[in-house]
Amino acid sequence: MTVNLRDLAPSIQPAVDAIAAIPVIRYVNETAWIFAVVETGHLLFLAILGGSVLGLNLRLLGLILPGMSNRDVERALHPWYVTGVVGTIVTGVAMAITVARTLLPSGAFFIKMVALAAAILLSHVVARQVRSGRMALPENAIFGLALLLWSGSLLLFATTQGLNSGAMLIGLAGAGILAAASQPRHRPAIIGLFVVAFGAWFFALDGISDEGHLAGWAGNALLAATVVPALGAGVRDIRAGSHQADVSMKLTAFASTLAWVTVAAAGRWIGFS
Q: Measured between alpha carbons, how far apart are the two ends of the chain, in Å?
């Protein structure tokens, strides 16, 4: 199954063709160094965005900056986050305009846009939680919408041919983050599960590449059987000994981190889909 903008909104194809025919757009598309400059800017803004998001989220998970309060970290990183979001969107739109014909049929691009909306909403909820110390009703609604969008992007990742391995990597990234946030005595067991999970992942890819559907499903089942306990152990440790507000912030920060990982993964897969 592949979902893309061309199939969802075929009426926009003429508009895209008209934009591509604009002399300036055509010149930029045909001039390698201009596109390279824009793409470099896009990657730099992504680095700024990633650093600001991870800085706050990993602080909330208790992994970095133990000497700073959550509010101080959020206050210090907020300008960088805004700069990263605005810069990434502006340069991303500039790139998308020049290669719109390629992006319309891309399933990875559609996944990236859905995940991007979810990631921005989740980061907004994280920041509001840190400032107020709680999650009010509007934030609950935004959080629910963001989770729905992110879940949809993960489902598309897992069911789109050629992108399946991206969903596996996102799952492993989530398990790894929670393992780092878990209690030290649980980490050896969780790391052992990761080793088995990676083996299951390669087993699944081999089965899929050989058109062995049974092997692919078996590999995915083994992957789930190893990653899910690791996720469960991490969530349990996050909940242990914490106030409800802290648990809510930590889990929201975790979801926000993985949503941005999904955006990054989909962006890297655009060229391969």
A: 12
